[in-house]
Amino acid sequence: MVQELSDLRTCIEEQRYEEALIIIDELEGMSRKSILRTIKSFLIRLIIHLIKNQIEQRLTNSWIASISDSIIQIQDLNLQDNKKSHYLKIEEWDDLLDEAFAASIRPASVEVLNGTLKPHQLIEQIDKTQILEIAKQLILLTYNSSSRNLPDSIDNNLAQLPGAENWFSD
Questions:
Q1: Which terminus of the chain has a smaller tally of CB atoms within 10 A, N or C?
Q2: Quick check: is 120 in a domain?
């Protein structure tokens, strides 16, 4: 990126504005790609915990904290600087969720049931549709809840998961 900024400065100083605009487009593309990569990493973390919840039928304090933090970070990353538009529109999540799900299987197999399941065994036991639906419901909260209200909205959704009655009852 340093080289691109240097080239941009040169283009502007030399009044080569068409080339400068091309460099700006490249920089915007790199920024968007970086943001999407980071969002995907939070999706993977989210899905790993949803898989663990589905298989083990429980929730722990650390899982809830991780799920909540993933959603809060996704909301923050997905909101563009103008605070009015998003990098990913609601209808654009399906492909990214599928990619994140696929990337979640191996690390989830290490964590679920103390690592006793191999990835192919884990896939046989999980309901992918249900996990992706829960993930999408949580993501939709990022569009419909303010950053101040998002944690409570997440908790309301997590209260519906297996094992939540033990965590949210106290």
A1: C
A2: yes
Phi, psi of 86 (to 5 degrees): -120, 150
Query: What is the CB neighbour count within 10 angstroms for residue 103?
Result: 16
What's the whole-model pTM score?
A: 0.85
Q: What is the pLDDT of residues 14-49, one digit of tens each?
A: 787 787 777 676 767 667 788 899 999 999 999 999
99 in any annotated domain: yes
Closest residue by Cα to residue 75 from 158, 31, 140: 140
Answer whether residue 23 is part of any domain: no
Return the structure tokens found at 43: 């999706």
Question: Measuring CA to CA, which residue among 6, 47, 19 is closest to residue 139?
Answer: 47
Q: What is the dihedral of CA 8, 14, 19, 20, to 10 degrees?
A: 40
14: in domain: no
Domain range for 87 is 35-168
Q: Which of 49, 62, 43 is nearest to 161 (CA)?
A: 49
